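Team,

Forwarding the record for the chain on the shared tracking sheet. I've put the sequence and predicted structure together so nobody has to dig through attachments.
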Amino acid sequence: MYGSNVSDDGLQHVSTLNFGDPFRKHEMHCRFKQRPPWHWLAITTSIGILVIALLVGYIFHATVNRIAKVEDDCHKMMELKKRAEAADVAKSQFLATVSHEIRTPMNGVLGMLDMLMDTDLDVTQQDYVRTAQASGKALVSLINEVLDQAKIEAGRLELEAVRFDLRAILDDILSLFSGKSQEKGVELAVYISDRVPEMLIGDPGRFRQIITNLMGNSIKFTEKGHIFVTVHLVEEVIGSIGFEMESPSKNTLSGFPVADRRCSWEGFKTLSGEGSTCPLSLSSSDLINLIVSVEDTGVGIPLEAQSCIFTPFMQVGPSISRTHGGTGIGLSISKCLVGLMNGEIGFVSIPKVGSTFTFTAVFTKGCADPNEYKSQQINNQSNLASSEFQGMMALVVDPRPVRAKVSRYHIQRLGIHVEVVSDFNQVLSSINSGKTVTNMVLVEQEIWDKDSVISAHFINNLEKVDCGMPPKLFLLSSSISPSRTRAATSSDHTPPIVMKPLRASMLAASLQRAMGVGGKGKPRTGEISGLSVCNLLLGRKILIVDDNNVNLKVAAGALKKYGADVVCADSGKKAISLLQPPHHFDACFMDIQMPEMDGFEATRTIREVECSINNLIQSGEVSVEAYDNISKWHVPILAMTADVIQATHEKSIRCGMDGYVSKPFEAQQLYREVSRHFQSA
């Protein structure tokens, strides 16, 4: 039990034994040769502690790795952001370069064609040149659309805020599409409510682009009937929503059924009162919220294609692109522009009936107070209407109310009082009543052609009226067919024809020619005649700087045509030496992208030289006589480039340039910019 292999391993137990002997004490020593096995609780506890320790270690390790990965990802994201920003800059630069490289030769093509038109050409050659010009302008328009789409995707499209005449813009758009509408026999008309102010503040170019896109689509897809553009205040439409009981299909411009325009604005928040799209920086009294509708009687849009009509580069079908052409981005761009104008756009279309597109746009009043607005209206009316038309009386013979309303609107813009009648008998009754003197009668061609006997009888009765001078008779026509042209030239009873679409300048010129009043050659408001341009540019010395010889020829030829003395330079360094004061140049057209020294650097150098000389003259260090008695030198420098990126505009102004001319340019663009600086000087 005790053995000889006793070791002090701590596994022995001493027990006291009592055998009843008072003289001896007994003890029992017990020892185990092996340690006892662990208890299960101790085992599981140890294992749990180990697992927890491992888990804590793993979590700590994972946390450290995660922090390192997040830091690495953050660095990668910053690097990707820098790359994306660099790519965005590179994309903008690419657009600028591509635009410049494409538009520069197009400037030469269109410029030379324009100069070719001034030479002695026969009819066939003139037709060839016009066709080439139209093709070139179509290509430039396509380039502009693609660039606009790219700027929209990059978020770089910005709007101007300048004063403009809304009615003049619509007149210009009518002039743009009048030839095509007359060729197709489609009636084209514009009506602007009297409550819409004459002058507004906004971006006229982009507003024109929206309407041009919508009307261009209507012209392409309409073979008969009409295209009708209306402009009202949103308040007018809201006030009339509950009162339009009759369907508009029963009362249209041409008599053809149309898609109900009220359905095109059903989802507009502005009309439903759910929200306001007005800028917060302006009070509501300063804002003009317009609603514009473009209605046509074309082929309509198939129902399956209406959901993707505003998708970029989307055509209704493959045959549409082949038949009518186009890229399919006009509506997409228009929708973006409407959004930038704090507006909404919608449409309604019925296949084989027609389509109506409607959009809203928010502008600012062009006049600060009502008195200024009234005086401006009077001035605009007096500019449009010759004094000979003021106070005249006209009768419009038209049984169709919408068409008569449009005719009344345009004739009243000339200061003529207008009454509408539905037939010839009412004309004779009104004239014979003697209440007012009727100076002219305008008859719709449709009424005139209905019965030639009645028309001839009406002319005879009109000449017999006992009221002094009989009123002058005119026909309002949308197109002239060859048979109608022969009838007009062969018959003595056919009245003068006023061609539609009606617009103030054309109507005034037609009435002046027929009635023998006013200046027959008077240009439209804001238009510069060739004689006035010659008087303005005659003897002016202008420097043109461009590294492209074709562009130099185009610009020089355009200005020499009006009597300017043109000097050409092919580099920025030559321009600096030529514009070193004292010099005798009245203006300078400077190309931006040139080798060695670009237009920006050349302009900055020229401005620095002018500034230093002006300071020397003001301080008296040099005499003003040494510099041709000019105390402040500043030659107008106009940027001349094919780059159409907005940043280029801003950079040209920052470096000291006074204006901007985009290529391809025409003669009118050139002299309009130069005349602005000459007039201010």
